[in-house]
Amino acid sequence: MTSASGGDSGAREYDDAGTEAGAVAASSMSADPHPATAPGLVDDSTQQRDQATADTVGIPPEEQPADAAGAGTGDGGRRWPGFWGRSRLGRGKPARRAPLWKETLILVGTALILALIIKTFFVQAFFIPSGSMENTLQINDRILVEKVSYWFGNVHRGDIVVFDDPDNWLGEEDGTTPSNPVTKALADIGLYPSGGHLVKRVVGVGGDDVACKDGKVTVNGVVLHEHSYVTLASQACVGIWNVVVPPNDLWVLGDNRDRSADSRAHMGDPGGGFVPVDDVVGKVFVIVWPPSRWQFFSRPHTFDNPALNKAVGVVQDTMPMGAALLFAPALYRRCPTRKRRRG
Fold first, then answer.
1. 222 near 308, Cβ under 8 Å?
2. What predicted TM-score, i.e. pTM, was given to this entire model?
3. How does pLDDT run along the chain (343 residues), one tens digit per residue?
């Protein structure tokens, strides 16, 4: 009996101690929602948060699971996206801007390269130093010459063209070029109107028979009606002359026929007054300065006369080669003789 009662007493003491310990634990939980764990033990909730954070490192926010998007951030599941999905706290410092002088050099160098490309392949500026093309072009007019038309097409009658000096013609035209080193350098890269060239109107192309008869210019026996652009001279030509333009050459005249040292003035030269097509820089299409002289140019209607070609059987191309290449695939698809694929 004594042994039995002693066992019961021991049991009661254990239960009381357990009850007290439980009460202390309960009060501690109510005071601190995150109790410290004993050394060597790991709390389950802490382990789960750490594991969720490790599993989501490097994963964009939109691909993270909803229950782990805010793991380890302490912001209630929200994530503050930064650069390329990284948090703002982990983003590196922004790159430093280049110095102003370096940016200026880059901009100037890029502008010069673009100017050279535009001048070489697309558009070039010139000024008019003489009155040989009056009143179409006047002294000190600034003009733009486009080069795209002659990439694949031919030079046509009636075009106003700028060309390199074929045989020292500039001496008689009083041509001038920029003499200031700065303007000369700018002219070389296309940022300043350049001289050293001539500008005339094409009257005859390769194979044409050009003549002067009774004060009028004829091409392949057809009289040209030039009153729309030959406005100063009393007549389109003086005297009697007749030439046949060699292949790949041009016969050019100034609109101011009384003051133009053009092909007529060089008929006795070694080149016969003809201008090689390869010397043509481009076609004049607009006056850009002064503003009061702003105008675009087109080919005079007298050169659209079909009789100019029929007289000698000349056939002009109606479509530049470049355009033909562009439309070739579409024409091939529409060709009726093309065999359809069998399904």
1. yes
2. 0.59
3. 444 444 444 444 444 444 444 443 434 444 454 444 444 444 555 555 555 555 555 555 555 555 544 444 444 445 445 444 444 444 556 667 888 888 888 888 888 888 788 877 889 989 898 899 999 999 999 999 999 989 888 999 999 999 998 878 886 545 455 566 776 666 666 556 555 789 999 999 999 999 999 999 999 999 999 999 999 988 899 889 999 999 999 999 999 999 999 999 999 898 999 999 999 999 999 999 999 999 999 999 999 999 998 755 554 444 444 444 444 444 343 344 434 333 3
Amino acid present at 51: Q
Domains and CATH numbers, the chain: 105-325 (2.10.109.10)
Q: Which residues are catalytic?
A: 132, 200
C-alpha angle 274-276-277 in degrees, rounded to nearest 5? 125
Strands 295-296 and 142-146: unpaired
Q: What is the Cα–Cα distance from 182 to 179, expressed in whole angstroms?
A: 9
The residues, any chain, with a CB within 8 Å of residue 148's CB and separated by 6 or more, are 122
Q: Which of 129, 298, 312 is nearest to 204 (CA)?
A: 312
3-state percent helix, strand, coil for the chain, nearest multiple of 5:
35, 15, 45
- Specify the DSSP class assigned to residue 146: E
For residues 208 and 211, give the distance between their C-alpha atoms in angstroms, rounded to a whole number. 10
